[in-house]
Amino acid sequence: MRSVFFERHGGNEVLTTGERPDPVAGPGEVVVRLEAAALNRLDVFVRNGIPGVPIALPHVPGADGAGVVESVGEGVSDLAAGEKVVLQPGLGCGRCEFCLDGERSLCVSYRILGEHVDGTLAERIAVPRVNVFRAPAGLSSEEAAAFPLAAMTAWRMLVTRAALRPGESVLIHGIGGGVSVFALQIARLAGAGLVIVTSGSDGKLARARELGADVGLNYRQVDVGKKVRELTGKRGVDVVVDSVGAATWRASLVAAAKRGRIVTCGATTGPNPEEEIRHIFWKQLSILGSTMGNDHEFAALVTAVGGGRVRPVVDSTFPLGDVRAAYERLEGSETFGKIVLTVGG
Predict the structure, then answer these.
(1) Which residues contact 146 (CB under 8 A, 6 or more apart)?
(2) What angle do CA 9, 11, 13 make, to 5 degrees?
(3) 2-146+312-342 belongs to which homologous superfamily?
(4) Cα distances (angstroms) measured from residue 51 to each of 11, 45, 117, 184, 211
(5) How far apart (Å, rounded) are the C-alpha atoms in residues 59 and 114?
(6) What ranges make up the beta strands (E) of 39-94?
(7) CATH top-level class for 151-289?
(8) Region at 138 (left for phi over 0; alpha for psi -120 to 50; beta for the rest)
(9) C-alpha triplet 95, 96, 98: angle, nearest 5°
(10) How far apart are CA 84 and CA 132, in angstroms?
(11) pLDDT of residue 111
């Protein structure tokens, strides 16, 4: 099968498009013929090499994918060839206390497609049946591939971890990235009263207002923490969504209201931010970590997407053979939404 892979870590020069062995469905598995796959910032980290996360080489990246069922393994009887499906990219052992409690993303041996095992930048992939969901009706394959990892992450952050309530206020850093664009929509779906977003691009802030943001702050022009306090009468916001890390952490602490919640799923600008611990105890803040999501959350998300209440936003599409150009677009500063690779055809 045709796929993207790399045989050593490095920059875009290590990405190759070529032939890899076709997967075979084992017991309890499904082979999906992929039609589209989306990139995440994770794919850049994996290409570069993540310290402490060894992977077998050659390696196929890609966590997000959508396509049709091609074949099923022994024990799979509820899916038929030709059904349109989308993949939940988190893999659990199914046996540990967390998996048995329905919390796969806390599994002691948790893995993600395209990070720990071969991923979706290929014509076919074999995955456990539990990772295969029927695609929401009315979406193109590109749109279906664009929501799983990022939207599931945003859903767990706001709905489960931060438990956002109607009328509460939210600050979302770095609008334009996949998680932040979905977080904006999910905050609106949950009934947030005030949604503030940040970016270094006025164009992205304008796009965010079209999606429902109340206020857009250009962090190149204002001190975000101080401006949020000014906008809220020195109160601050109830929930801060921070996937940026080092560059935004101080602003998150300043912007959060007393008894506020800061929820984080990543650190794209670095994992060791400048800290002001007095904000945490004086305001009695809750710092909440969040990773991916569970099947219940993903199913709820699929329903929301199918009902048009959360909309996949596709920045641009590339054919599989132009994977290096797709990565270059991802690593630039102009993206708004997801970058998708078309696999079939």
Answers:
(1) 36, 38, 64, 178, 312, 313, 314, 337, 338, 340
(2) 95
(3) Medium-chain alcohol dehydrogenases, catalytic domain (3.90.180.10)
(4) 16, 10, 16, 31, 37
(5) 8
(6) 64-72, 84-87, 90-91
(7) alpha beta
(8) left
(9) 120
(10) 10
(11) 97
Query: 108-114: long-range contacts (C-beta < 8 A, 24 or more apart)?
Result: 110/291, 112/42, 112/63, 112/149, 112/292, 113/62, 113/63, 113/65, 113/87, 113/89, 114/42, 114/43, 114/46, 114/60, 114/61, 114/62, 114/63, 114/89
CB atoms within 10 A of CB 89: 26
Mean pLDDT by 10 residues, the chain (345 residues): 97 97 97 98 96 94 98 96 97 96 96 97 98 96 98 98 98 96 98 98 97 98 98 98 95 98 93 91 98 97 97 97 97 95 85
Task: Output the pTM of the full model.
Answer: 0.96
Domain boundaries, the chain: 2-146+312-342, 151-289
Helix (H) or strand (E) holding 194: strand 194-199
CA 184 – CA 182 distance, rounded (Å): 5
| Separation CA 345–CA 324 (nearest Å) | 19
* Residues making up the chain, counted from first to last: 345
